[in-house]
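Aim 2 progress update. The chain analyzed this quarter is reproduced below.
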Amino acid sequence: MVLCALGDLMLDLIVRLDRPFARGDDTPAVTRAGAGGQAANVAAWAAALGAQSRLIAKWGGDTPGRLVAAEVGARRVEVLGPMAPGRNGVVVSIVDPDGERSMLSDPGVAPDLRAEELREEWLAGCDALYVSGYALLRQPIDEAAARAASEVRAHGGVVSIDLSTWAAIRDFGPERFLGRLEELQPDIVFANERELDELGGVPAAGTIVMKRGAAGAVVSAGTERTQYEARSADVVDSTGAGDALAAGFLVGGIELGLDAAARCVAKLGAMP
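Predicted structure tokens:
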């Protein structure tokens, strides 16, 4: 199977607090720096689960950009997309002692990917396309996402979109975001409950995978709605668990997705 993920390649800075944050004072923590970004996470997990994996993203030519591109490439992901002279994106993930995470995101050059920069060979033979929802919120990468979806669908591939962020959907406008989804006509939509609530409508997709964290997942296909329990895991860091689930679902179905999510939360960091 060939999976293509379009979106972002970021430097992830993860800070896991040993105790609640002490504002204005010192708080003990464990940190990790490495490759991340939603699309990059999905591509890396897909490769770890046995797929041929490609990442399509614009990344910065600065030191962080070169480092994360090399790291993702070392994970058997084909890193595609133009390198830009600007600043690579950075995400700072603050992880509470209970494993819940909050993120501070700087996209860098990632949203600057243009439709005309896509190459036909990047999408050739793609069985499944994963599009990060962040790509629908910004220009000109939104046009690149639409072109990629059209090309993959024309050659019989499956198109999937992750809603990604309830806060940005609110700022962007739920109706406007629903319009973007309709343009791309995804076969599969990944979302958590809050993202679906913020959207205020049901996305037009054959399958909706609702990610529920420790409560598992719900897969809706047509009139069928099936709930699945999460795998047992000692939660260290929930960063990237939804990305792992999406990769597993696309590669081998919901059971593999739940397995991957459990593997992800049991360690620090979003990559496998």
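The mean pLDDT is 93. The chain has one domain: 2-8+37-83+111-265. These observations will guide the mutagenesis experiments scheduled for the next reporting period.
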